[in-house]
Amino acid sequence: QITLKESGPALVKPTQTLTLTCTFSGFSLNTPGVGVDWIRQPPGKALEWLALIYWDDDRRFSPSLRGRLSITRDTSKNQVVLTMTNMAPVDTATYYCARSAYEYGDLPDSWGQGTLVTVSS
Amino acid sequence: QSALSQPASVSGSPGQSITISCTAANYDVGAYNLVSWYQQHPGKAPRLMIYEANKRPSGISDRFSGSQSGSTASLTISRLHPEDEADYYCCSYAGRGRMFGGGTKVTVL
To answer: Of A32, A60, B12, B54, which residue is the least packed, with the fewest Cβ within 10 Å?
Structure first.
């Protein structure tokens, strides 16, 4: 059974850096064809893809947020960490991590429950 | 503004069929055959319904089907059930990353 769970602060202040951790089980980020995505969803709005890290450490980012994002992995802990700098109120959203795998078309298949992050002073 | 365009809303009565479209503005969705569809109920995480344009993951009802033609992918829900009322999103490749459509709210009348 594949599970993913996001963790991090529920509240951050404007200009601060957000660090979110995705802890997963049921798959390995050492397996070829596997990746972990981060996706967010502002309240009442659509999903927005943020970043992706693959089994081979290939990293990809949303062009609109590229300069603010970093993504790393710790395969020994089964964790992926997303960092977003210079947070603003418009970044208030539920942040999801999700697994991608070639067997499912290399797009997200299993999702975490999401974590709501509010940006406010 | 999303480069994957979906209708904002679609509705149908129980037992009817509805189709949601997903049109790529700048590239041929069909060229890659790699479109996924997700269902999202309020307050819940998205759930994969269709991958690679027309494949269903294990456990997904055969009432859900996908297709594609040129720059447009489609999700059809047959024999609508009340529990199908949800938001639906398409997703595809965009450059070196991914992109989601703007979402379609499905209402079961």
So the answer is: A32
Helix, strand, or coil (residue B86): strand
Count Cβ atoms within 10 A of the Cβ of residue B3 and give its class: 0-12 exposed, 13-18 middle, 19 or more buried: middle
Q: Around A83, how many Cα atoms within 13 Å sit in the side-chain half-sphere?
A: 8
Q: For residue A63, which residues of chain B lie inside 8 Å, CB to CB?
A: 95, 97
Tens of pLDDT, residue by residue over B22-57, are 998 776 555 556 899 999 999 999 999 999 999 999
Task: Tell me the per-residue pLDDT of B56-92, one tens digit each, with 9 for 90 and over.
Answer: 999 999 999 999 988 899 999 999 999 999 999 999 9
- Rounded CA-CA distance A11/A118 in Å is 5
- Phi, psi of A50, deg, nearest 5: -110, -55
The whole-angstrom distance between residue A69's C-alpha and the CA centroid of its chain comes to 10
Residue B30 belongs to what H/E stretch? helix B29-32
Of B51, B96, B98, the CB nearest to A104: B51
